[in-house]
Design a protein that fits this description.
316 residues, alpha/beta, Rossmann fold, seven-stranded parallel β-sheet, three-stranded mixed β-sheet, 12 strands, binds nicotinamide-adenine-dinucleotide
């Protein structure tokens, strides 16, 4: 297939690009490369350093599927600059899907987020439950979903609501819970837990990639919204699992982030997808990468620090 992947230089996008190439696809990556570009040259890979807000500049003719991952990808980064957040995370989604339709692209796969549910007491949060987006990041994800669904009669739309991703990527993120706590244990012998009781779902990076491959292979028959998260555990549980591998003391501080929910991925599992990796694997990946020198605790692996360095915050 010929795939246009936005955000292909990101934490998920980098290994996703490599896995798509391995599977024989032709990939065009569109990414501003805020966090660098870790993609090696490949005969079937084109990397375009471009802003998705310029959808008219993106080469969509002959593309079989758009995989849309480029976003400002967490709450604090979205809060840095409201205008940027709404333009990139919401408005650009509409511009991209309109361009895809104009270029007769048959399929559009969107990386939303499981965090659109906000706080939920239900034991199993399924796709049909009402959304309670708490942050601007969550709101732009919800709005993008609704915009995309409004085009569903003109293009096949697959919306994935991923849990928090864990595991090692060449373009690493250390602001995601499993990797962050593991790195704290490795570098400080101390894990700082904010709150700790909040239950959140997780997904291993390799399973995340497999979800996108699954929708590329079967998505034309699977329109709609799918949760993708398999281990609903508390931050305390993550800290405990990290401690099984790296000795560390756990320090608890109050949290101002109330998001807590248990994702059900039964709908995705019913389509034939089965996860193959665990949070424990993600912890092991980070430890291995740290110990063999592929990974250091560097500022560029924290999205907010890089965005501040790039002066992307809104002027007061
Ligand atoms: N990582 C997770 O735990 C997780 C969980 C749920 C959903 N998601 C979603 O998955 C997607 C990928 O997440 P990630 O962890 O790889 O994030 P990331 O921050 O590592 O990657 C995002 C990429 O998008 C690019 N980008 C941002 N704005 C752009 C613009 N205007 N034009 C072109 N490129 C732009 C950045 O340069 C970056 O390479 C995001 O949409 C995110 O919201 C991620």
């Amino acid at each position: 297939m010929k795939i246009l992947l936005t955000g292909g230089c990101g934490y998920v996008g980098t290994p996703l690009t490599l896995s798509l190439l391995d599977a024989g696809h032709h990939v065009t990556v569109v990414d501003l490369q805020w966090f660098g570009n870790f993609l090696p040259a490949h005969p079937h890979l084109t990397v375009i350093r471009e802003d998705i807000r310029h959808a008219d500049r993106l080469p969509m003719a002959g593309i079989d599927a758009v995989l849309h991952l480029a976003n400002i990808a967490n709450d604090p980064c979205s809060d840095l600059n409201s205008k940027l957040n709404w333009e990139v995370n919401a408005l650009a989604t509409m511009q991209l899907v309109e361009r895809a339709i104009a270029c007769q692209v048959p399929q559009f796969i969107y990386a939303s987020s499981g965090s659109v549910y906000g706080v939920k007491d239900e034991p199993e949060v399924t796709e049909d439950l009402p959304l309670v987006p708490l942050s601007d990041y969550n709101k732009t994800k919800m709005v993008s979903e609704r915009v995309l669904l409004s085009y569903a009669d003109r293009i096949r739309v697959n919306i994935v609501r991923p849990a928090t991703v864990c595991g090692y990527s060449p373009r690493m993120r250390l602001d995601l819970s499993v990797s962050m706590l593991t790195m704290q244990a490795l570098t400080k012998g101390r894990i700082t837990v904010f709150g700790g009781d909040q239950t959140r779902p997780n997904i291993h990076l390799q399973d995340m990639l497999r979800v996108y491959h699954h929708f590329l292979a079967h998505g034309l028959d699977l329109p709609g919204i799918y949760n993708a998260g398999f281990e609903n555990i508390s931050i305390f549980d993550i800290a405990d699992r990290v401690k099984r591998h790296v000795p560390a003391v756990v320090i608890v501080t109050p949290s101002n982030d109330p998001r807590s929910y248990r994702l059900s991925s039964a709908k995705l599992l019913a389509t034939g997808f089965a996860p193959q990796h665990t949070v424990e694997d993600g912890i092991r990946d980070v430890i291995a990468a740290y110990r063999d020198g592929r990974l250091r605790d560097e500022e560029r692996y924290y999205n907010i620090k890089t965005m501040l360095r790039l002066e992307l915050a809104q002027a007061a």
